[in-house]
Amino acid sequence: ARAVRARPRARQKHRASAKMRRFRGIPPFSKGIVFDFLILSRSGGKSKEFAENFSAYIQLLREKGYTCITEITPINEPSFSYFINNQVSFEGYKELCLALDARFRADGIRDDILFNLSDNIDTHEEWLESTMMELDEIADLYNSHTYIFGYNTPNSEIFAWEEENKNITRNTGKPHVIG
Hints:
By secondary structure, the chain is α/β, with parallel strands linked by helices. The chain is 50% helix and 12% strand. The protein is built from seven helices and six strands; from the N terminus they run αααβαββαβαβαβ. It has helices at 9-24, 34-43, 47-63, 78-81, 90-106, 125-135, 155-169, and strands at 71-72, 83-84, 87-88, 114-121, 141-145, 176-178.
């Protein structure tokens, strides 16, 4: 019998993460930390590169027969992704969303993909308001996350919280959902 030498786990993990970084279009030097890439997109003009990669992935998935992608949320909870110098910067998120919209239109896929924007957490209603005011022309729907409710929270409290979100976006005529 031939002895098989196992690779150290750390090396296997590193190789897998390097492959994933290439798939996601994240520079290898970032060591897989998406947060750093997003911060760079805020000030380094990386929004167009991010948009190009995102569009390319959607197109690749469609070429492979995946037609189930009908909407995107560009970044999970962007109010944390753009938290710089102890301040939230909406401008970076706005720049990224506008770049995505422009790229998806240029590539002819924007009409097929809805933009589900804001993705704020429950205590950041101002992010939802900014998204509605600044990006309503490209938003197709809005969403918010919540972590403030527990197992014992009455449904009426959750429904009231969602009703407040819907009141913020009501004048847009676009739906708001809990993401």
